[in-house]
Amino acid sequence: MTPRRVGANLLWLVPGVVGGSEEYTVRLLTAFAEQREEHPDLDLTLFVNRSLLVAHPDLVAALPTVVAPVPGTNRVVRVGVESTWLVAQARRRRIEVMHHMGGTMPPLRPCPGLVTIHDLQPFDMPGHFSPLKRAYIRLVVPPSVRAARVVVTLTRWTQRDVVRHFDVPADRLWLVPSGIDLPPLDVDPTGLDATLARHDLVGHPYFLYPAITYPHKNHATLVRAFAAVAARHPEAALVLTGGFGPSEAEVAHLVADLGLEARVRRPGRVPRAELDALYRRATAVTFASRYEGFGIPVLEAMSRACPVLASDVGGLPEVIGDAGVLIAPDDVAGWASAMDRLLDDGARRQALAAAGRVRAEAFPWRASAESLAALYRAVLEAPRSTGRGRRP
Question: What kind and span of H or E run contains 174?
Answer without folding.
Answer: strand 173-175
